Amino acid sequence: MRYKQTNEPKTLQQAIVYFSDPSRALAFAIKLRWPDGNVTCPRCGSEKHSFVSTRRIWFCKGCKKQFTIKVGTIFEDSPLGMDKWMTAVWLMVNCKNGISSYEIARDLGITQKSAWHMMHRVRRALQENSIVKIGGPGSEVEVDETFIGGAARFMHRDKHRRRITETGTKDKTPVVGVLERGGEVRATVVQSRRKKPLQAHVREHVEPGGEVYTDALMSYMGLTQQGYAHKVIDHAERYVDGKVHTNGLENFWSLLKRGLKGTYVSVEPFHLFRYLDEQVFRYNNRNKPERPMNDADRFKAVMGNVFRRRLTWDELTGNTARQPSIN
Of the candidates 209, 198, 154, 206, which has an alpha carbon nearest to the alpha carbon of residue 176? Predict the structure, then answer.
């Protein structure tokens, strides 16, 4: 069957009004999941079914089971309505410095625990996992690393004693990023700043043949022998030498840390990669002259990526022994 749609929202206020109508929210989700309008069962793939309009569910004539628009998505098994889900997605992808689970909970009238789980499910949809390398002949790529972790001077005495065991960066989490100028950024949590993990990350994400700019960290030495035109900027002397600098990635790190420190406040290393995915998505989908993106475009990009990415509570909290992931 076909579903009628009206003009789609362009702003948050319009989105709240638009998705408050369950029929419109369903029609919007159907258009993204089944663009041709042919609804198929997410369990068996059958196109033979009946639709119960009063409950907004389908009954599959193939596997003899009911299914909703949420089955097979990040929304599966959630008692929250699609109006709350879509509002949360809109806020997450369009707030430059992120939005906390406490604020989402107040805005939607749900518990903070539900909001926290909801936001991590949305972050699963923000993962890009592209296998296409950036860079290549004629390109300019910045590579840089940073450490994520609370500053000792801002910690309570008890927390400081528990989490800060040595001076320096031992108790912080290293993160490496690659940025193609005029292109996209990618960031990953790594075990250390040693040569093996850093250069493995470069080889995984950057195509040889282009110019690669790094700081003077010795772990980057040897990239020239791997096909990269490697140039170094020594931050002890200067931060820019012509076009050789890593200021693009420094800007990204600034945005990331501003959100972590000012919005999320406390992020466990176990979940850090999810917050990286969130900030990478917003950075890569920001409004640029060569690729105009508005709030609605970012929202639709995420809503088209929610399928087959379910994240259960047990998987999120690491309790996979009790209930393994069914992704």
Answer: 198
Helix (DSSP H) and strand (DSSP E) numbers for the chain? 11, 10
- The two tokens of residue 90 are 């809109």
Q: What separation in angstroms does the CA of 143 have from each of 200, 246, 248?
A: 12, 7, 10
Q: What count of other Cβ atoms lies within 10 Å of the Cβ of residue 56?
A: 14
Cα angle 262-264-266, degrees, rounded to a multiple of 5: 105
Rounded distance, CA 50 to CA 171, Å?
56
Within 8 A by CB and 6+ apart from 313, the residues are: 117, 319
- Which pLDDT tens digit goes with each residue over 239-277? 999 999 999 999 999 999 999 998 998 888 889 999 999
Contacting residues for 200 by C-beta, under 8 A, at least 6 apart: none
Q: Are 311 and 124 in contact (CB under 8 A)?
A: yes
Rounded CA separation 102/231 (Å): 44
